Amino acid sequence: MPTVPTAIWNDVLGHIQVNHPQLMRGWFSTLTPQHVSGGVLDILAANDAQRRYLEKHCRFALSEAAQAATDRLITAKISVRSDDDNDEGSVEAHPDPDQLAFNQDYTFEDFVTGPSNRLAHGAAVAVAGDPGRAYNPLFVHGAVGLGKTHLLQAICHEVIDKNPGTHCYYISCETFINHFMEAVESGALHEFRYRYRHVDVLVIDDIQFLAERERSQEEFFHTFNTLFQSQRQIILSADCQPSEIPSLEERLISRFNSGLVALLDRPCTETRMAIIRKKSKLRCIEAPEDVVHLIATRIDTNIRDLEGALARLDALSQATGEPISLAMAEASLGNSPGKPIKIPTILEAVASRFDVKVSDLQGKKRSKAVTYPRHVSMYLARKMTERSLEDIGGYFGGRDHTTVLHANRTISKLVDTDPTVRQLLDEITTDVKNAGY
Ligand code: ADP
Ligand code: MG
After folding, report:
1. Is the pTM of this model over 0.70?
2. 148 lines ligand 1 (CB under 6 A)
3. Is residue 167 within 8 Å of 198, Cβ to Cβ?
4. What's the rounded Cα separation, in Å, for the pair 298 and 309?
5. pLDDT in tens, 253-280
6. Ligand 1: residue whose CA is nearest its atom 6
7. pLDDT in tens, 320-378
8. Domains, the chain, ranges and CATH?
9. Does residue 146 line the site of ligand 1, with CB under 6 A?
10. Is the N end or the C end of the chain the one with fewer CB atoms within 10 Å?
11. H helices within 26-147, ranges in order?
């Protein structure tokens, strides 16, 4: 079968680098183009995690690049080296529509350690190596954007890679609550319990959403006990310690505290620099050391913000066709964290989160699907900009300042009482800060 000339393969990778830079990963250089035959370009990935990433995100880009490089109609086909073909243990072996999709970048390999996260990382590695025995439960907590989800998913990747066939069930707390409510309503509690009590590793992200949910707490308590007694691993994350989750039952607090509770703290400058280097490598971004230092010293909020700054810089470099430099970084950063936030940026971010149109946020419709995001936009406009109530009202189809005040009060109350809303607003706030590039 015709092999693939190196020059053609380099062209394929070059095409992706130019046209889909966000898809590039450092390990692309280890892919093996096998042969072209019958209009199919066979590409060998080193392991199943890489294959999943390529299948999910890059098939179209690879085919398009192969067509551009050869001037022939070619489709990319990805397979994995046979000695590493452990499909049996891959996530797809346990298809569940509610299982959260794993991010292929959230592995231990790509998790940078430092004083702020060493304990949590060490515990996560230990748990992944010996689920059900090392620390059970493992409870990881920390503020938004500090790596909880990354660490939880890294455990799942490791467990599945090492022990093909392990049923690792990774879901959000909201999914657990929704499943439970649906099961109660449809009289299918038996199925619900079977589903949750027969997994090997149960991973629930953002467990703080159990706050104020008495019946879900009760059910979770029993799920927990059943799994724990049969030495199945339980891994939880939250934005605070167990005892700080509002109205969490005492018996759950004590269960959560009975294993290992590990904090993910804000990283120090050295760790932030190491994270930027790691992310740059992962995304094939050339960031000189002085730029890495500048970003790390300017942005100390959380890691998601660091990534946002790097992405902005990358976009700027792509747009101008110039390599990333200190001057470019100065200009880009000078324009970002402390920059005045504009109301249209908030409207865009809210509209995209709620999947509504900006014109609806500014219009007269009164359905709940529109009024809630509209109130959220007004609240954020009040919080994130210096604009007066009247000015803000003006952006929303000339509404009165009392309407803005009312929206502000309504959302403030929700933020105080509902952790789901708090988290959502934190995320939109980060989106707004990262926007505009
Ligand atoms: P959380 O769940 O705590 O809100 P995430 O796990 O979503 O935070 O992390 C936000 C981003 O920061 C992700 O892209 C993640 O890969 C990255 N990140 C967090 N901590 C680290 C780390 N120690 N090393 C590398 N990347 C990290
Ligand atoms: Mg998270």
Report:
1. no
2. yes
3. yes
4. 10
5. 999 999 999 999 989 999 999 999 999 9
6. 147
7. 999 999 999 998 887 544 567 889 999 999 999 999 999 999 999 889 899 999 999 99
8. 6-80 (3.30.300.180), 118-264 (3.40.50.300), 269-333 (1.10.8.60), 343-433 (1.10.1750.10)
9. yes
10. N
11. 48-53, 59-70, 118-129
